[in-house]
Structure formats: structure tokens, C-alpha cells
Amino acid sequence: MTSRRLPATHVFLAKQMRDLSRTLAATIPRVKERADDEAIHDMRVALRRLRVVLKLSRSIFGRFHVEAIRATFTRVHRASGALRDEEVLEETLSGLGVEAPELAAWIALRKKREDALRTIVEKRLRAGDLKRPLHALGALLSLPVAPKRRRPLAEFAASSVERAQKGVELLRDTPAENVEALHLLRIAYKRLRYTTEIFHDALPIDVAALAEPSARFQKRLGTIHDLDVARVVMDRARTLPPWVKANILDAIAKQRQEAVELYLRDQAR
After folding, report:
1. Which of 5, 136, 203, 232 has its CA 20 to 30 A from that of 155?
2. 136 and 212, same structural domain?
3. pTM of the model
């Protein structure tokens, strides 16, 4: 923890949300105009971080109003998530090393779904689905916080990280075969990572250091999750020849096993 005087929790969280709001707002024209390949990714990162800070802020700024704003952000995040899943699916399948013209043709056809999902996200943004909650959040942050809701930042940060750690501990021993629970563990690591990053300057050095391994485990589990999603999609594919599907599923299983071994090796350190 730094030796400088820390701001009150409501002041710190308000600044975090204002900064993230500006970052998020800057991605809107980039996504609408398809300005660059990272626009959707950057928008989703800003949305995720903002949703985490909003969730942490419920006891400070009021659960009802915070959740109303957060729910609107969540709807856009889910819509963009479907698009991001399609982009990741293509990357995952293309990286399997399966050389088959039938697979290349299937991926090309799947592009139509990606384009349709991108259009949905763009329509939401043009309709103001992000501008409205950003405006509402700005209005909420302009209001005074009741004295009884004001808390010392170091205490609030420590309790927030402790809750995030418990979420990880509950799922840490999940077997690699439990796809659903492993996905929840990835989300728990993501929450722990973001929480420690958000409160970095208000945490003891050893607690703040949790951000790095949390990010590493999140990435390892993310790779496994992407392969699990690809496996489900392939299982449901009806237009691919059986032998092509079998080769793809075998390649997915092999890469997943390698990804699981890397994750377990890291976990055993």
C-alpha cells in the first residue's frame, strides 16, 4: 500500500467510473464505423471493468440505482459477447491445423452469422443503448453520497478482494472435465483480477500481487473455454462430412488436453 493519503471510497469509485465511462464512450464511434479490428474487444474490456466497479459500488451509491444502470450495460455486453464468441470461434478452428476444404467453406458460411451479430451491436449503439446508461451514471455520480455510506478505502478494498478470493477458493479444485464449473472458475479469477487491479494502490503489496496470477489463470482457463465452445459448435454442425467433424473434434480434444496440462502445471506451482 502506498504511504500517501487515500481518498474516501465513494470518491475513489466515482473517479474509476468516470474514467471508464470516458474510455467506453471513446469506443462507440470506433465500433459503429468499424474503424479497427480491436474496437469490439476494447469496448468489451471497458464494459467488463465498468460493470465490476458498479457491482462493487452498490453499497456506496445505492443498490437499486446501480443495478438499474448496470443491467443496461449488461445487455449491450451480452450482445457484443455473442459477436466476440464468433470471432474467437473462427480463430480457434483456424488454429487446429485441420486442413480440409469443407472446414474452410463452413467457416466462410459462418461469417454470415458474425456479420449479422455485428450489425445487431451497431444498431444498439446507434439507438443509444450505451449513451443512455452512461448519461444515467453521470447523473448518479453527480449526487452526494449519504454520510453513513462513506467508508475508508483501505477497509473497503480489503473486504472486496477477500470476497473475490472466496469465490475462487470455492471452485479452485474443480476437475478439468467439469466444463461448466471450470467456466465459473474463469469468471471468478477474472473478478479477482479486476478487483485487485482496481484497488491496487489501496492494497498491501502482497494482496495487490494477486492480480498477476489471477490474470494468468484467467487466460489459461479462457483457452480451455474457447475449445469447449468450439467442441459444442462442432457437435451441432450438420453440414460437415462425418470424417471432417471427427478430425476437428480429435484436434480440439488434443489441444484441450494440452491447455489443461498447462493450467494444472501453473496451479501446482
Report:
1. 136
2. no
3. 0.90
